[in-house]
Design brief:
single chain; 317 residues; mainly alpha; two-stranded antiparallel sheet; 4 strands; 72% helix; membrane; transmembrane
C-alpha cells in the first residue's frame, strides 16, 4: 500500500489537479491580464486579416488554416518545452491553472443574480457582454435571465469540466490546447454572418472535443430529482437543437428546474430562431442561484470521481 502511494505521489498528476484548483479559487488571474484574453484578441485580429470577402469554400479553408496556424504552433511549443521545463509538475500546474475559468463563471453568476434581482438591466448586460457573441442591448429582464442561465451552464461545462476532462486524458498540455481551441470557437463563432463559414472549422473541432466531457457531465446532471421526467424531455427535445452537446445539458438543467431556455437570439442585427428547451418558467435571480448551487455540487462530484479514477489508473499501471 505504501509503495503504491509513493508511486502516486511521485507521478504528481493528482497533486497538480488539486493544486491548480486551490490556486485558481484562492488567487484567480485577473481577466484583463489573463493569457486567454490576449489569445482571443489575437484571434480576432488574425480574422480581420484573413477572413476577407472571397468564395464560400475559400473562407472555410481560411478558417481551417487560421485554426491550424494558431493551435499547432502552440502545441509544438508545449511539447518542446516539456522536456526542458525546470519542474514538470509546476509546468503542468501552470498550464492547467491558465486553462481553468471556474472563478470567472462564478463571478458572472453573482453579478447577474444581483443585477436581475434589482431589476438592473444595465449591470446585467455589462456582466454578460464579454461572454456572449449575441447582442445583449435589446434583451429584457426575461431575456437576460435566459442568457445568464445558458451562459452559466455552458461556461461551467466547458471551462471547468471540459478542461478537467482533457487534463485527465492528456495532462496540462491537453487542458491548455482544449481551452485555446474553445476560445477560437468563441472568437470566430459562425452564428454571426461575418464569421460564416470562416468559423465553422473551429466550431466543428470544438464540438468534437466537447462531445465526451459534456455528454458525461450531462448524464451526471441527469441523475437525481425528476430523473424520469427529465429523461423524457431529453428524448423529445434533443433532436431540435443543432449542437447536441449544448442541447443535452440545457435540456437536462432546464427541465430539472422547469426553466424555459433557448428561443430567438439576435446576432449582428439579425434575428435567429432557436427551439425552446427545458420547462416553462422564465429564469429569475432565484433560479440562477439554484442552478449555480446545483452545478457547483455536480462539479465537486465530478472532481471526486475523476480523482478516484486517476488513483485507480495510476495504481493499475
Amino acid at each position: 500500500m505504501s509503495e503504491k502511494l509513493s508511486l502516486l505521489i511521485a507521478d504528481y498528476s493528482l497533486l497538480v489537479l488539486w493544486g491548480a484548483l486551490l490556486f485558481h479559487l484562492l488567487l484567480p488571474i485577473p481577466v484583463h491580464a489573463h493569457p486567454m484574453t490576449i489569445w482571443r484578441k489575437f484571434a480576432e485580429l488574425l480574422a480581420t486579416k484573413v477572413n476577407t470577402a472571397r468564395s464560400y469554400q475559400q473562407r472555410g479553408l481560411s478558417g481551417f488554416l487560421a485554426w491550424t496556424l494558431m493551435v499547432i504552433p502552440a502545441f509544438i511549443v508545449c511539447i518542446a518545452a516539456q522536456p526542458i521545463a525546470w519542474n514538470l509538475p509546476l509546468f503542468n500546474l501552470g498550464l492547467l491553472l491558465i486553462s481553468l475559468e471556474w472563478r470567472g463563471v462564478e463571478k458572472l453568476c453573482k453579478a447577474t443574480i444581483q443585477a436581475i434581482n434589482q431589476d438592473n438591466k444595465k449591470d446585467a448586460k455589462e456582466a454578460l457582454q464579454p461572454w456572449l457573441n449575441r447582442e445583449v442591448e435589446p434583451l429584457s429582464l426575461l431575456g437576460l435571465g435566459k442568457a445568464s442561465a445558458e451562459t452559466i451552464i455552458l461556461g461551467y461545462a466547458r471551462t471547468v469540466i471540459g478542461v478537467l476532462f482533457w487534463y485527465g486524458i492528456a495532462g496540462g498540455i491537453g487542458a491548455f490546447i482544449y481551452r485555446l481551441s474553445l476560445e477560437l470557437a468563441r472568437a470566430w463563432s459562425p452564428s454571426r454572418d461575418s464569421f460564416r463559414p470562416f468559423g465553422i472549422p473551429a466550431l466543428t473541432i470544438q464540438t468534437f472535443l466537447d462531445f465526451i466531457p459534456l455528454k458525461l457531465f450531462s448524464l451526471l446532471c441527469l441523475l437525481g430529482k425528476n430523473f424520469q421526467i427529465t429523461l423524457q424531455a431529453l428524448s423529445q427535445q434533443r433532436k431540435s437543437w443543432a449542437n447536441t452537446n449544448n442541447a443535452w445539458l440545457l435540456i437536462i438543467i432546464g427541465k430539472k428546474f422547469e426553466l424555459s431556455l433557448g428561443g430567438p437570439v439576435i446576432y449582428q442585427g439579425k434575428k435567429i430562431s432557436r427551439p425552446k428547451l427545458g420547462g416553462q418558467i422564465a429564469p429569475s435571480a432565484i433560479h440562477l442561484a439554484q442552478v449555480h448551487r446545483f452545478l457547483s455540487w455536480r462539479i465537486a462530484i465530478w472532481i471526486i470521481i475523476q480523482s478516484i479514477l486517476m488513483v485507480i489508473i495510476k495504481q493499475g499501471l
